[in-house]
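residues and backbone:
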Amino acid sequence: MNYQWYPGHMTKAKRMMQENIKLVDLVIELTDARIPLGSRNPDIDELAKNKSRVILLNKSDLADPDANRLWMSYFKEKGLYAVELNARAGTGVKAIQPIVSEACREKIERDRKRGILNRPIRAMVVGIPNVGKSTFINALAGKACTKTGNKPGVTKGKQWIRLNKNLELLDTPGILWPRFEDQTVGMHLAMIGSMNDEIIQMEELALDVIIFLKEHYPGRLTERYGVSEESDKVKVLEDICIKRGCLMKGEEPDYRKAASLLMDEFRSGKLGRVTLELPE
């Protein structure tokens, strides 16, 4: 399967970000902790090349804790400010404001020398679809000030949010990039739900998840579904159909229904904490 999703609104969103980048001091980039590099839009590097950066590894509660530690070390070694975050539960949110101040220390000092005091830091919040930007902003603000939804594309336009006298945020729509050079990146993005499921062959994606889990997290499928992992990927999916009653007329396996079940449980963490890529 060829993984690609770049609807027209993303072109418009990227243009809007290019127009507004000059208004901000800092770029806060949310990534998915299960694919911290694969979920970083390479276009953002060019867009924010002269800005301070903070990387947030969101949904860290769904990622392998050992891998989270490796990724935090990786970003630190790269000289980037990084925070392990679970925006839905609020874990890691209190660390954000001090790190934002640290990342913008030179800007604050320049303002002070010019006699400009207490001017708020303005930050653009960026990230791929469904990475949790709106949930993060609401957690940071302590109230629901943006729309949220567990699907890509909820935020359509820009909106400024004044959190306090020290920080203002510009929320932006989630955007991918026009072409994935490595189709593994596209596959991983589809696995975590950052692409529109309606354009994806769910059965194929579920088979890819089965292959990945058998290799990197053996025993998870057996523990969750009571199936043998010794079988090939199609037989494993067929056994899940039977175990979970995903059957059509005549007791025929309903592979699509079982695939949707598997993907929902994989994405929600019911198959355990999983990381799809590790630092080189």
